[in-house]
Amino acid sequence: MLDPHTIEIIKSTVPVLEVHGKAITTVFYQKLFRHHPELLNIFNHANQRQGKQPTALAGAVYAAAANIDRLENILPVVKQIGEKHRALNILPEHYPIVGETLLAAIKDVLGDAATPEIMDAWGKAYQIIADVFISVEADMYNTAEAAPGGWRGYRNFIIDRKVEESRVITSFYLKPEDGQAISQYEPGQYITLRVKPEGEQYTHIRHYTLSAAPGQPYYKISVKREDAAEDKPAGIVSSWLHSHAEPGTVVELSAPAGSFTLDQTDEHPLVLISGGVGLTPMVSMLEAVLSTQPQRPVTYIHSAIDGSHHAMKEHVEKLASTHKQLNSYVIYERPLEGEACHKTGYIDLSFLRDTVDPMSDCYFCGPVPFMSSVQQNLKALGLPDERIHYEFFGPAASLEA
């Protein structure tokens, strides 16, 4: 435990972190990869280039400092990050490297303001925080390994099938190379894929949400091809999967993880809202609830640019035609000529008033601007915070305006 004086010093630095947090974490990653380039085999390079990872880390450091005397307040965040760490195979020996580098980055950015007393306090605080993460993640590793069909680290899987779902989304069905059982998962969870495309210096690791209900002898992921744009290069892993991975290709997976999961004990009406490839956890949740809660009313709303970008359209239509509990709606931003949809443009408050029961439990996923708009409209509709659930693809961000 930290002594009161150390806690006081840490909490006094919270305003400084608000101002300099991203600068500190940006320097942190620069130092980390310069001195430990082997860690580039773990971190998502694209998130580094786009500034997403430094922003997410700054938020986590800020939250830890603000709650240093009551870390139980951030335990949900610790568990969410711990899930990703377990999926990435982050180990206890990585934490001293991170701590040393983080302290050096704080000193570099704050200069003389980072007094020996402040640095000593942060050294003690980091060790406490690291111990919490290591303990939580140890339990997660043990649980993942002990589960029926479970494993620790990475396991070889073979691409069994490759199905084009839209002009930009393709599904991959993955079966274990050893032919043994695979661990089950909760609707909304993800697997973590590790590959080393030809010509790449480092391995690349990506989280992909499982896009089918549990209970199959395979894992299904549905991946959007991330093409190059003005502000970002093409996605390395998604491009490789779409262009080079074929049935028979072997990839490495870590066991399913993630804290964004469907509560299948709740009996309130369920609303699922997705934008683009954000449909992957929603379809898994949809299939699961139709199977396990046949009396629970479900509304599924999907938004896409147009029909050519709309994945799994026929699949959801078939589910709606065979399950009376399901109402399905489609919104196209710019429908192609002759395309039918329930609304043109975007999901707005008026549309939600007509389709969503304010007593519903709502889950949504998609691009950040899309999710920010959906959250704002759901709150305006009267849904309380505890009935609004969402997931980011990539590092955590904020939906607040």
TrEMBL record:
The reaction(s) this protein catalyses: 2 nitric oxide + NADPH + 2 O2 = 2 nitrate + NADP(+) + H(+); 2 nitric oxide + NADH + 2 O2 = 2 nitrate + NAD(+) + H(+)
Free-text cofactor note: Binds 1 heme b (iron(II)-protoporphyrin IX) group per subunit.
Domain FAD-binding FR-type, residue spans: 152-263
Short name of any one Pfam family annotated for the protein: FAD_binding_6
Site (Involved in heme-bound ligand stabilization and O-O bond activation): 29
Domain description: Consists of two distinct domains; an N-terminal heme-containing oxygen-binding domain and a C-terminal reductase domain with binding sites for FAD and NAD(P)H.
Name by which UniProt lists this protein: Flavohemoprotein
Organism of derivation: Paenibacillus uliginis N3/975
